[in-house]
Amino acid sequence: MDALIAPLLNGSAQGALLLLAALGLSLTFGQMGVINMAHGEFLMIGAFAAYLVQQVITASNLSIPVALPVAFVVAGLFGLVLEVTIIRRMYRRPLDTLLVTVGVGLILQQAALQIFPSQGVPVEKPRWLDGQLTVLGYNWPLRQLFTILLATACVAALSAWLKYTSFGRRIRATVHNRDLAETSGISTRTIDRLTFFVGSGLAGVAGVAASLIGGTNSQMGAQYIIPAFLVVAAGGIGQLKGTIVAAWAVGVALAFFAYWTTGSLAQVLAFILVIVFLQVRPQGLFTVRTRSLA
Amino acid sequence: MSNTSKRMRALTATGAIVTVALVLAGCGARAGDDAAAAGSSAAASCVDTSGDTVKLGFLNSLTGGMAISEKTVSNVLHMAADEINADGGILGKKIEYVQEDGATDWPTFAEKTEKLLTQDCVAAIFGGWTSSSRKAVKPVVEKLNGLFFYPVQYEGLESSPNIYYTGATTNQQIIPAMDFLAAKGVKTLFLAGSDYVFPRTANAIIKLYAAKLGIKIVGEEYVPLDKDDWTSQVAKIAAAKPDFIFNTINGSSNVGFIKAYYDAGLTPAKTPIISVSIAEEEAPAMGHEVTGNFASWNYFQSLETDTNPEFIKSWKAYPNSSGVTSDPMEAAYISMYLYKALVEAAGSFDVDAVNAAAKAKPITFDAPEGKVTLDGENHHISKPGHIGRINADNQFDIVWASDKFIEPDPYLEGYDWFPADIRKQLTDAAG
């Protein structure tokens, strides 16, 4: 039983972290078409924000819940500044955006290296995440359950926001048809900024989750950026549900491959799977249905 | 409307290209690829020591992934050079250093080595961390007959007339750790490592020695160096219930491993870890979750030797200091003083004269880890073996020490359980 339960549960948690990292991208890349390579560094900013919050609120039971909204706002503000200063000049020039944001990412990494101890900083896990939950004989670390709950909460909040608020409706209108949205009086500039703020903020939340799983240091963002882009592409660009399914599938595939083979081979196999899938179905899992012929 | 799906497709394509390009960039840099190509014909040395200074090169990754470790080595090299200068220099000449950034890119290490030797005309180069960086530098220093001082424990099976190794080779770190485990009565061992040459070679040696010691290897897991999530592998370790875990993981991935270990409810009381890459620098990033586990090194900040208190004091006072001393940085500190001793014994900065002096009589240095002696043949140094246990301050309590300084044996020729064919196979595989 362990042979099925452990990889399934661990894979779901791995998928949840991937989803958290990809959620913001599904907005900025999926909805706005901006290839932001500094997204991983926004994640890093979120993790360092969690560390800084812990310097002020030393009880880790309290500091992590406080760190989540703080990381969201801090990473979001970094995103906003990036959008206002650089990215807005580059809409419809995806390759230029790509190159510029790679540079921004490197600058942020080096800044973190200069400011914080080079080996990274500790982010303490709340005491209430100590321990395991026994599921069919497997002792499942509670922290994994936390990652899944956090991802679920973020998805629910984001979907509700997109669906029920006027901002959400305006974002969707802008994505579906920017010109028409503008004609009907929507300020697409404001919408772009807000979307970028929320997308970057979500990276910050992912950073807090990542700080509880791996190291918090200047290099941490790099390991999430490629899988996150792959997940968004595999899910179908602009499709939240696609991102969710793809992240979960990649996470579970990674865990099963890791269980059957080795950790290194699992990375290769899981991403070969994604690439083959994209060959067969380049539009991803789900597509935006339009009446257009092209 | 028709633009929408076209744009989507373009985006998908762009995304795919970006992804492929980055993956290639990530793993494309192969050690020493253009090292040989970059070399000019073996020119006569352009080192000029006629003035009152001598130029030395420092080659460390100050940017990129390895900067988290190599920055400290660079800083301690500066400190050692400053100390020597304050003390009158080497052969009366002040050290003038040229700092280069290896940028965590192995071909860059090769290029910068050539630049330091042919354009800056340095008398010796200090630095490197990863084996890949050393293997990129090696063909260049050999071709141009330069000197390279390498300060990090590594997988052994190498010696070069142009390289001096001041970190441990396997018989000074891995083998003492195994002796410690055998003394503790460990029966089963799980091997966890990062996926590159050092852990693979170390584990090959561990498996051979474990067979000799009667320790059973109950599992072996590798995760790429740049991945932090160890949850799946730790689940396998928990299921295997080993007496001890031998950890050859390197870098930030260690933090993820320790967190996953702690999350799974594994404890040092039941399933302790012995590590070879967690030192005073790395432990603080793991907080209290690493407390109680073990590490095998030659130097610990907590060592009580005549020279260690002074070393710790100088480092703490040095600008940009990390505040704690550790094995690799101590080995870097040794490398600078070892070079000074070599040059003074040779009475010259000339590479051949230095190498001849190394062979002529034993060169020693009163290092913070104790009095080390250079082996003039294989260019490694003798070292004491120590096992430390991590305490609540993320410092190490010494729990075991080798009875004497261990002579370096990079090819493990003095160990009958290490067969010649495996030696050849591993040496060839390491390139």
UniProtKB/TrEMBL annotation, chain A:
It comes from Paractinoplanes aksuensis. Pfam families: BPD_transp_2. The chain crosses the membrane at residues 12-30, 42-60, 66-86, 98-116, 145-162, 194-214, 220-237. Belongs to the binding-protein-dependent transport system permease family. LivHM subfamily. The keyword Magnesium does not apply. Signal peptide: none annotated. It is found in: Cell membrane. Its main location: membrane. Keywords: Amino-acid transport, Cell membrane, Membrane, Transmembrane, Transmembrane helix, Transport. This is Urea ABC transporter permease subunit UrtB. It is a multi-pass membrane protein. CDD domains: TM_PBP1_LivH_like.
From TrEMBL, chain B:
It comes from the Bacteria. The keyword Signal applies. Coiled coil: none annotated. Residues 1-31 form the signal peptide. Pfam families: Peripla_BP_5. CDD domains: PBP1_FmdD-like. Keywords: Signal. PANTHER family: ALIPHATIC AMIDASE EXPRESSION-REGULATING PROTEIN, PTHR47628. NCBIfam families: urea_ABC_UrtA (TIGR03407). This is Urea ABC transporter substrate-binding protein. It comes from Paractinoplanes aksuensis.
